[in-house]
């Protein structure tokens, strides 16, 4: 039995984003985002209930300040006490996991969506995704970009404006474009 385009998308395989089932999911998410982003003045509990309507998991006391933007929502899992500030974007064509207690600054963008490097599949309109995993107690500074397939380990720090193209080890601080580990002077002198 062949896979549907949505099944291919969720599995991280090449898929056609114009597929009617996928387009229906995108339309439903657009409608949901209109409701969620209009709930700016709602209580955190009311906004959390809206998140739970769309996300695969919403942990206790998780907060996402509107406006917020995503492709589907149902591929996003956010842990207990996690926080996302205004204007964050998650392109969740496959799973995006945000761990407990993670703090995400404004205008952070997390991309699971990717495109073939070979021009022929791109020309044919094919796309794919690679899951993104952000561990527990991570701090991501405003305007940072997390690229497809990246895993950020527990207790890591991502500097504001960083472009994270590779995995970040637990407890590591990275900054820059592309993001690289930062060695503090106190660490360097040891």
From TrEMBL:
<dbReference type="Pfam" id="PF00132">
    <property type="entry name" value="Hexapep"/>
</dbReference>
<protein>
    <submittedName>
        <fullName>Maltose O-acetyltransferase</fullName>
    </submittedName>
</protein>
<dbReference type="InterPro" id="IPR018357">
    <property type="entry name" value="Hexapep_transf_CS"/>
</dbReference>
<dbReference type="InterPro" id="IPR051159">
    <property type="entry name" value="Hexapeptide_acetyltransf"/>
</dbReference>
<keyword id="KW-0012">Acyltransferase</keyword>
<comment type="similarity">
    <text>Belongs to the transferase hexapeptide repeat family.</text>
</comment>
<dbReference type="InterPro" id="IPR001451">
    <property type="entry name" value="Hexapep"/>
</dbReference>
<feature type="domain" description="Maltose/galactoside acetyltransferase">
    <location>
        <begin position="6"/>
        <end position="60"/>
    </location>
</feature>
<dbReference type="InterPro" id="IPR011004">
    <property type="entry name" value="Trimer_LpxA-like_sf"/>
</dbReference>
<dbReference type="InterPro" id="IPR024688">
    <property type="entry name" value="Mac_dom"/>
</dbReference>
<dbReference type="Pfam" id="PF12464">
    <property type="entry name" value="Mac"/>
</dbReference>
<keyword id="KW-0808">Transferase</keyword>
<keyword id="KW-0677">Repeat</keyword>
């Amino acid at each position: 039995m062949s896979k549907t385009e949505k099944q291919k998308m969720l599995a991280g395989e090449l898929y056609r984003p114009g597929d009617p089932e996928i387009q229906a999911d995108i339309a439903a998410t657009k409608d949901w985002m209109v409701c969620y982003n209009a709930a700016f003045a709602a209580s955190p509990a009311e906004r959390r209930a809206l998140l739970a309507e769309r996300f695969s998991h919403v942990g206790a006391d998780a907060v996402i300040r509107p406006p917020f933007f995503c492709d589907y929502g149902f591929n996003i899992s956010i842990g207990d006490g996690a926080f996302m500030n205004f204007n964050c974007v998650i392109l969740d064509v496959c799973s995006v996991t945000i761990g407990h207690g993670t703090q995400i600054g404004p205008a952070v963008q997390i991309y699971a969506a990717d495109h073939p490097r070979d021009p022929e599949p791109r020309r044919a309109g094919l796309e794919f995704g690679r899951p993104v995993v952000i561990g527990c107690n991570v701090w991501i500074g405003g305007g940072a970009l997390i690229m497809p397939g990246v895993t950020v380990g527990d207790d890591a720090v991502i500097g504001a404006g960083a472009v994270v193209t590779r995995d970040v080890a637990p407890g590591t601080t990275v900054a820059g474009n592309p993001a690289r580990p930062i060695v503090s002077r106190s660490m360097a002198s040891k």
